[in-house]
Amino acid sequence: MENEQIEAIAAMLKTMSHPIRLKILCLLQGKEMTVGDIREEVKTTNANVSQHLSILRNQGIIGYRKDANFIFNRINDERVLELMQTMRKLYCQPE
Question: For residue 12, what are the domain limits?
Fold first, then answer.
C-alpha cells in the first residue's frame, strides 16, 4: 500500500472508532434512518447525533437524502458496509 492509501484508511478508521459513530454505522447497515430514529437507539440528544453524523458525512462514510421535512441517513461507502459486516461476523456472533 502507498502512504496516501494508508493515511486515508487510518483517517476513516479513526472516524469510525468512536463508540457512538460505530453504533450509528451498525444501525445504518442496510437501511436509512432519521436523526430521531438514531437518537432513540443511541440514547443521546439530537444535537449529539447530528454532530456525529456530520463527522461521518465529512469523511464520506455516510450520505443522506431529503424527503419533505425528513433527512434520511445511509452508509454511502460499500467498503464500509463490507467492513461492518465483517466486524459483525468476527465480534458479534455467539461462539
Answer: 3-91
